[in-house]
Amino acid sequence: MPKLFDKTYFNAEVFEKYVDTIERERTNELLNSSAIVERADLKTRMDEQVGGNIIVTPIAGILSGDADNYDGQTDIKSDSTNTFYQKRVVIGRAHSWTEKDFVFDITGGHDPMRTVANQLLDWWADLKQDSLLAIIEGIFSMTGGENKKFVDTHTYKEDVFGQVTLNNALQQAFGSRKKSFAAAIMNSAVSTQLENLNLIQYAKYTDSRGIERPLQLANLNGRPIIIDDSLPVSKEGEYTTYIFGQGAFEYTKAGAKVPYETDRNPMKNGGEDTLYTRDRFCFAPRGISFTESSMVSLSPTDEELKKGANWEVVKNEDGAFPLKQIPIARVITKLGADKAVSTTPSGTI
């Protein structure tokens, strides 16, 4: 019978090499959507770490002012541009994996460290999307003044997610700017309900074996929908779907001095290798600043990113950033009476 050593199964009598790994549950399409735009030009400022992990960037306002009558006797009045300043925080993450030489020896040459290396980019993608979702949760936890007004006007509630729910939510939050829609991300229970109504279709891909498989990317009335079960589900059975316009977040890869390195300890456990990885990155939601009001260290944890006190609508002496130009919204719905969910979603709160 197969036995277990250090989380690895092996057959003491006849061992067959591993040829598969567990299929990934997430594909993180949100990171690749047009809701995310890269700001590589900010990397230098983040590398310098002037003022720690916080940087401030300007957002140019829209020109305004009434025209003066040009009649040879009326003075021309002058206005100035309305500039906002946004605070961004750099997120730092690191981890390591250690594997024993003995695993290689007893599995007929299976190298777990190679498995780690092959999956490392996917691991980072999972982590970054989790941090992005934590930021979104924090944004919708803001309170007071324009912050509450944003949360209220960018939250659309309906009993059940139906054919026109997405369109109505876009109109409420973005108004005439709804045409800039980039993607929505929802729980699979909500997407299944829509699928049962023949309202969505899934994109497909062909894997390395030539087998056609469905992606977690769908279309609702021609609009891209991403499926992710890490989204919030309340104890009352309310499902949250997030909606994003183009450029909802600006992403900067700040990087680390030593992003990857290995270490070897030939004595411990008969010999073992460790792979270390580090990275620093920034997701800046358009029109919303990081306040750093509730942060223990220079890098916020995901739990700190979820705190509404750490976020606020950008403002200046003339007022707040136009809310309809913040291309982030959410839809809160329940499942229909014919849709009973027997499993607990991973995003339950």
The major sheet is characterized as: 7 strands, mixed
Total discrete domains:
1
> Which strand-content bin applies to the residues?
25-35%
Number of helices: 7
Task: Give the strand tally.
Answer: 20
Broad structural category: alpha+beta
Helix content class: 10-25%
- End-to-end distance, in Å? 40 Å
Whole-number mean pLDDT: 83
Q: In terms of per-residue confidence, which ranges show pLDDT below 50 for 5 or more consecutive residues?
A: 1-5, 7-20, 340-349
Biggest sheet: strand arrangement: 7-20-12-8-11-10-9
Any idea what the radius of gyration is?
Answer: 25 Å
Coarse shape: globular
**Secondary-structure element series:** EEEHEEEHHHEHEHEEEEEEEEHEEEE
Break the fold down into its secondary structure elements and pairings.
Elements: E1 2-5, E2 8-11, E3 36-38, H1 43-48, E4 54-60, E5 83-89, E6 91-100, H2 101-106, H3 112-139, H4 145-153, E7 155-160, H5 165-174, E8 181-186, H6 188-196, E9 200-206, E10 212-220, E11 223-227, E12 239-245, E13 249-253, E14 260-265, E15 272-285, E16 288-290, H7 302-305, E17 311-313, E18 315-316, E19 319-320, E20 328-334
Parallel strand pairs: 3-13, 7-20, 8-11
Antiparallel strand pairs: 1-2, 4-5, 6-15, 8-12, 9-10, 10-11, 12-20, 13-15, 14-15, 16-17, 18-19
